[in-house]
Amino acid sequence: MRFDFQTMSIELKIADFALKGIQHLYGLQADPDQISVQKTRKDQSGDFTLVVFPLLRYSRRSPEETGHSLGEYLISRMPEIGKYEVVKGFLNLVMHDSWWTGFFAEIQHNENYGHVTLTSDAPHILVEFSSPNTNKPLHLGHIRNNLLGHSVSQILKAAGHRVTMVNLVNDRGIHICKSMLSWQKWGEGITPEKAHVKGDRLVGDFYVRFDQEYKKQVTKLIEQGIDEEQAAAQAPLLLEAQQMLRKWEEHDPDVLRLWEMMNEWVCRGFEETYRNLGIKFDKIYYESQTYKLGKQLVSDALEKGILYQEEDGSVWADLTDEGLDQKLLLRADGTSVYMTQDLGTAHQRYQEYSFDRHVYVVGNEQNYHFKVLGLILKKMGFPWYNRLYHLSYGMVELPEGKMKSREGKVVDADDLIQEMYYTAKEISERLGKMDTVPEEKRQVNYPRIAMGALKYYILKVDPQKTMLFNPEESIDFNGNTGPFIQYTYVRIRSVERKAKDSGIRLDEIDWSREIKPGEYEKQLIKRIHQYPGVLKEAARAFSPALIANYLYELVKEYNQFYQFETILKEQDKNKRNFRLRLSSFVARHLAEGMNLLGIEMPERM
Q: Which of 337-351, 438-452, 488-502, 519-533 is predicted least confidently?
């Protein structure tokens, strides 16, 4: 029996015939939005389910009677369907076994299965992520940001979008001046080379030192009888940092030289961390080069009466008509705030890319900020304001609680990457995973296992959820982890090598003979069939977790198949080669899926 796999997906075909069935059976034209075809629930038998309840308005009959009538109509016109069952308001459809093997035969050589071909008119999505401050090294929270931004970009590309990955480095502002002032006071000319540390870490240490000395000054002022709020605002160190910021904006040559030197240290350190994480950007912007764009927008809006100015010279946006409050855009001394530069860079991005969507990957503590950003752009009259999207993600916490950069209570990204490497090496050797692997291959595999564990552990969690990070738990070779998926991939590659050594060719399958899949084979193919829908939803929701958990479910299905079905020892040559081909497809599919998460696969473990 031959089936058409080219014209439309089976779900769309069922929906299309359901519409025709309603017209034929009841003489009415149904609303396509009322047709819902979904995967059959686990507690019911079937492959696809047509939800009957919304269709009762056309049939004027009971759910059971309507289901049976539509079931008979569908089975008489769709040779793909073997039988059906009605359970209350659900019409469960069971596909012929030959349809599943035919589906697999159709996709077996598709190296980009599930991916959408890029077209010239595809939507252009700008994904902005990382956005580090040049006063400290990247830490665990930044890792989640970078992994999310990179993975979301890869998923969007696979779903047929044009994607540009950008990074806005926050290299100016009061926090930068705090590190600079601290180095000036206590650095004694130290450099990364002299200290034998990465530049971003050295600068971060001086940021912590500033906070320590600042707190001492605040405490002393409080002891002198000044209230806490005044003390915090009047501490000499803070006033000096504010003065340094003003000098920076006035292009003071000494301040600029210090700023350029320390920023160069930090950016060199960032580049090394990005390389270790496998992160690349299409373009990197620097706030020092873009912050004035926002000041001009604010000035123009002030002239038009969109914004207002206080007596002290500060400029504000009144958002009370939107149910919010007033938002500061320029301080009394004329210096800008984060919102100012975000207004300017958003305008610049649109001028440069005419994006269909601008995705900001930023933690959920900035939810209010991005809501305000869109509202101010709307007030300014930019029609594309609603194309901005804040991909808000939860914080990464440690067993001992939240991280605090200014207090030095963070897990540096570099330290974590190194720890993951040693943990992967120790666990792999303890479990004997590398006993038969040559030393040079081990040195390639350990980083892949370490990064696979780190990336998968973070990306498998829904972005909006706060997560607790446990390095050792992430390198478990069983369960929902990166190494578990990698190990299954390696297992399949081992089977392929044994087949090759035995002279078995993967393409020796006689598809003209009926190949009746076993239950485990069919479940595996059914899982693979879900992938295009999973990818589409992951792109719509900007959620790598959907891809990660799909891969885990696929691996569980494969391991069930591997445990209960023979492959190379199967006596029926055609069945053996079918199982081998299915295994090979799964391996390639796993590698492609993990690549969307930024994870490389080891060839041996």
A: 438-452
Read off φ and ψ for residue 8, nearest 5 degrees.
-160, 165
The H or E element spanning position 593 is: helix 573-596
Domain check: are 592 and 446 in the same one?
yes
**Residue whose C-alpha is closest to residue 458's, from 427, 420, 431:** 420
| CATH code at position 257 | 3.40.50.620
Q: How many angstroms from the chain centroid is the CA of residue 226?
A: 48
Query: Is the distance from CB of 203 to CB of 183 less than 8 angstroms?
Result: yes
- C-alpha to C-alpha distance for 190 and 202, rounded to whole angstroms: 9
- The helix, strand and coil proportions of the chain, stated in percent and rounded to the nearest 5, come to 60, 10, 30
Q: What is the largest CA-CA distance in the chain?
A: 93
Tens digit of each residue's pLDDT (9 = 90 or more) over 206-218: 999 999 999 999 9
Contact between 458 and 144 (Cβ < 8 Å): yes
Residue-by-residue DSSP string for 300-336: HHHHTTSSEE-TTS-EEEE-GGGT--EEEEE-TTS-B
* Residue 5 forms part of a structural domain: no
CA end-to-end distance (rounded Å), the chain = 42
* Pair 384, 468 in one domain: no
Q: Structurally, how many domains does the chain consist of? A: 3
In a domain, 277, yes or no: yes
Judgement on whether residues 378 and 486 belong to the same structural domain of the protein: no
- Nearest CA to 593 out of 466, 452, 468 is that of 452
Least confident range from 513-517, 521-525, 586-590: namely: 513-517
pTM score: 0.92
Domain boundary among 45, 79, 95: 95
Give Rg (Cα) of the chain. 30
Q: If you average pLDDT over residues 295-308, what whole number do you get?
A: 95
Q: Is residue 168 part of a domain?
A: yes
Distance between CA atoms of 41 and 55, rounded to whole angstroms? Answer: 20
Do 489 and 587 contact (CB within 8 A), yes or no? yes
Are residues 440 and 354 located together in one domain of the fold? no
What is the predicted pLDDT for the residue at 299? 95
334 with 212, same domain: the answer is yes
Domain presence at residue 109 = no
Q: Tell me how far apart the alpha carbons of residues 412 and 400 are, in angstroms, rounded to a whole number.
A: 15
Instruction: Tell whether 373 and 231 lie within a shared domain.
Output: yes
* pLDDT on residue 454: 94
- What pLDDT, in 10s, does the model give residues 369-418? 999 999 999 999 999 999 999 999 998 877 665 444 444 456 889 988 99
CA atoms within 13 A on the CB side of 45: 8
- Give percent of the chain above pLDDT 90: 80
Last residue of a domain, one of 407, 434, 461: 407
Residue 454 · residue 465 · CB < 8 Å: no
Mean pLDDT computed over 326-347: 90
pLDDT at 562: 96
Dist. CA 54–CA 91, nearest whole Å: 12
Domain range for 458 is 414-596
What is the CB neighbour count within 10 angstroms for residue 493?
A: 19
* Strand positions, DSSP E, 331-482: 357-363, 388-393, 396-397, 467-468
Q: How big is the chain, counted in residues?
A: 605
